[in-house]
Every structure is written in structure tokens, then in C-alpha cells.
Amino acid sequence: MNLQRTTRPRVETMELLAIAVGGAAGALGRVGLSQAFPATAGSWPWMTFAINLSGAFLLGSLVTHLEQHAHGSTWRRPLLTTGLCGTFTTFSTVQIELLRMIDQHHNGLALGYVGASIVGGYLAVLTASTFARRVQGTR
Q1: Cα 127 to the center of its chain, rounded Å
Q2: Whole-angstrom Cα distance, residue 13 to residue 76?
Q3: What are phi and psi of 69, to 5 degrees?
Q4: Separation of alpha carbons 66 and 81, rounded Å
Q5: Can you spell out the DSSP letters for 100-131?
Q6: What confidence tens digit (pLDDT) does each residue in 22-70 have?
Q7: Do residues 117 and 52 touch, judged by C-beta distance below 8 A?
Q8: Alpha-carbon span 51 to 49, nearest angstrom
């Protein structure tokens, strides 16, 4: 019988702390904006949509910038991308809003919302990444 030891990835305490700090900031920002501008039942959830698109744009900018400047701190990427952007944007809220739309028989609105969220998020990441590359290329 061949018993091999499996190597587990080493968990970096500073990386986990960075994710937690970024996550707290992102979640507080999202919740604050969502409470300040709540969605109305049966209507387009503008704040969630804006949060997700701006978060996707920020994520595209950050990932592109951090790829070009990989040297230095190892905690910047988890702090800003996984932590901040990951909790600022919210897939779960989109799902709840879609369920409410469908429950209220606003199927066209739900379909438009999911389509606009996916396409808009992709375009936001693409635009931000393209812009960040151009800015970095001029330095």
C-alpha cells in the first residue's frame, strides 16, 4: 500500500487578515448604500446594479494594475480584490431581487436585470482593464 503525504497549501495569516479587513470595508460600503437607497418592490434595483457594475469596474482596474506591479506587498491583491471588491459586489442580493421579481410576475424585468447585470459587469471589467493598460502603457 502506497501512502503518500499530501501537501496542503500554506495559509498566510496576513493574507487572511487582509481579506477580512477588505471584506469588512466592502460589506459595510454595500450595506450602507443599499440602506440609503433601498430598492422598490417590482422595480429595477438601481443601487444593487450600480454597486455591482462599479465593483466590477474597480475589480478590472485593480487586477490589471496589480498584475503590472506584482512586486511589493503580497497582501494588496487579497485585500482589494477578494476582500473589498468581493464583498462590495453581491451576487446573492441579485438572486434575492430576481426571486422577488419572479414571485411578483415581473418576468421581463427579471430577465432584463440578469442580462444587464452579466453583460454590464463583463463590459465594466473589460473597459476598466483596457483603460488601466492604456494608462500604464503611457508611463
Answers
A1: 15
A2: 14
A3: -125, 60
A4: 10
A5: HHHHTT-HHHHHHHHHHHHHHHHHHHHHHHHH
A6: 999 999 999 999 999 998 878 999 999 999 999 999 999 999 999 887 7
A7: yes
A8: 5
Cα–Cα separations (whole angstroms), residue 90 to 66, 71, 86: 22, 30, 7
pTM of the predicted model as reported, rounded to 2 decimal places:
0.84
C-alpha 114/C-alpha 58 separation (Å) is 20
φ, ψ (nearest 5 deg) of residue 65: -65, -45
Listing DSSP states for 19-61 in one string gives: HHHHHHHHHHHHHHHHHHSPPPTTS--HHHHHHHHHHHHHHHH
Q: Which CA distances in Å does 17 have to 71, 72, 84?
A: 20, 17, 12
Which three cell numbers mark 103? 414571485
DSSP reduced 3-state for 98: helix
How many CA atoms lie less than 13 Å away from 119 in the CB half-sphere? 6
To 5 degrees, how large is the angle CA 96–CA 58–CA 73?
120
